[in-house]
Predict the structure of nicotinate-nucleotide diphosphorylase (carboxylating).
Amino acid sequence: MKLNKNIILDAVNNNVVSAIAEDIKNIDKSSTLVPSNINGVAIVKANQKAILCGKPWFEKSFKLIDKGITCQWGIEEGQEFKKNQIICTLHGKYNKLLEGERIGLNFLQTLSATATSTNILVKKIAQTSSVLLDTRKTIPGLRIAQKYAVKIGGGLNQRLGLYDEILIKENHIKSFGSIRAAIENVGNNNYQIEVETIGELIIALECGAKNILLDNFSILKAKEATLINKGKAMLEVSGNINIDNILDYAKLGIPRISVGAITKNIEAIDFSMIIDTI
């Protein structure tokens, strides 16, 4: 299953509703101290260089608090921005801008971080035939949001969830007793199987597997795997891959490289929002 407009819109709404319930519930006890007749203008500024991502979530955070809030963007989704650059300007009731500030920025800082970490690796392997994919190692509740951010950063999506596609991993194989038994139990070719050794790769190929994940293969073992495979199956490599070694794996000609770190090891992008009365 691929991300589409409806899946993204549902995620935006569900994520923001949950975030508002978590932060405000029925009242913002601080913002209610501010008179409701005061209007404000808020400027969101970047405190570091990064890739922008999360505009739908940011805008929804304010619209669900007050439909009267407007937002003008100075940066497009997926565009790189510089330190001290103005990202957007909001107009609305001062107290309502205060209510949405942290909720909106939380989405922006998290999804921009995901897109940025993805883009760094995508650029690293841009001159090869390999593509970068995400995993299910995402922040709970933000699966769709982070997979959206991966695409904004130039990466590709794996399955959206367990309901989506079959991936036979180590613990599944243990339950069947062997790779052969596990593959026989699937009953079709619409699956991916994880192997941890060259021996397991050979068995998977003998069983007719067409989509094989090389889990935690060293560069030397991955090279050996490509020579054994000879194009029989689609190969993917994953595990302990980072900015320092991803190009070495890509140069082997392995079509797919999946990296969990682009969604789970992110460092939030630093934004600030300053509000003034008008």
Remarks:
- The longest strand covers residues 39-46.
- Residues 5-122+266-277 form a domain with the Aldehyde Oxidoreductase; domain 3 fold (CATH 3.90.1170.20).
